[in-house]
């Protein structure tokens, strides 16, 4: 089992790493090309459409993967069923989002967002059908094809978005470049994974029921990812207007604050984004074990997945948290450092918890415990939203506002991880061992202590400090016995199988 998970994570993890690097190229280039105000406008539109798009994509991948895991011989029929499903789900949702663009813009008190929001609905439509093919590759455990599509799309997306931004054509054209990239990757996926090959679609009801249940959970999770940005945009506008700012000026300044916060978000999300690879691998494995009613194998999947996820998410999170200002200063200008630096520590550690929360929710869904996943997501979203509504209005200035959002969001994510763990223990009988949590916390403390006595401000010194922090963290895990020969042997087996 560990080798299967390891090979899958190796393929998809490498692809996700490339995707993150490509996405980072976008997020590094756009603030310089567009400036914080236009970049904030782009960020608002991109986050808004991603709230729905991520639900459609992830829900479809899991629904198709689950159907194929139950019976791998039905691959073409499952693809045909998925395509038919999105004639009645994906396309109508895209049209609904397009029609709702004025309402989303009204929520943000910014009518200029209507046109780019409406155009971005095409991303939802194209991705819906693309996700069917990715789900088919995932369910068949063709992780190399899934990884290849990730790499291809990441490349197309960075070229399209940065290219249109460099032409100075505005936010609507940048979103249009994204739409073109989605259309191209859909064609590529049809050729590489293969279409239904004439197979007849089966009744869509079973797939639709699962998608509906998972989608509700995913809506909550994706709202959790954007709640801070939405509320930052809206409440900032209201605060500025209350002090006498004109609506157009308040909207622009709110975009600027969102632009600064988005820079912090993109860095803080690295632990979460890298751990997404784990969800794609563990979902079909847990689903298959559940279908076989193999409780011990399911518990083994959970224990192994959660342990390694905590270790590697914390490794990334602690590197980001110990010296946030110097890390932001490497790619960005001083205003991003001054305004966004204090928020990065809280948000980076919060996203370690988000990685655990998301993987745990994926396991609950794969085991058929979607209602429990929904409960944990709803409580987490409510706690996060409540925290932002309490803290943000009391903040004065950009840096304080960003820090308030980060603290409230990070706290909510920690609560979500704890609730998800309780659900896993209750229904599956496995989560994170107390010793593992204690050792990881001890290793993180040791890494932080070393960083506190090795100050770094220049780029080369900052990168050297980051490497030292990572080395101390891993060395502490080895010293405490959390990492040892078993992990080395696992890596060697994965490499041999990969070769």
Describe this structure in words.
- It is a single chain.
- The chain has 499 residues and is an all-alpha fold.
- The chain has one domain.
- It has helices at 2-70, 75-88, 90-107, 114-139, 143-166, 171-192, 205-242, 247-268, 270-291, 295-322, 324-329, 334-366, 370-391, 398-427, 434-452, 459-479, 485-498.
- The longest helix is centred in the N-terminal third of the chain and has 69 residues, at 2-70.
- It is globular, with a radius of gyration of 22 Å.
- It starts with a helix and ends with a helix.
Rounded radius of gyration (Å):
22 Å
Helix content: over 70%
- Distance from N terminus to C terminus (CA atoms, Å) equals 18 Å
Please count the helical segments.
17
* β-strand number: 0
Question: Strand pairing plus helix content: what structural class?
Answer: mainly alpha
Mean of all residue-level pLDDT scores: 80
Shape verdict = globular
- How many domain regions? 1
Percent range for β-strand residues: under 5%
Order of helices and strands: HHHHHHHHHHHHHHHHH
Low-confidence stretches: 1-6
Please summarize the sheet with the most strands. Answer: none
What is the multimeric organization of the chains shown? single chain
Task: State the main characteristics.
17 helices, single chain, disordered N terminus, 499 residues
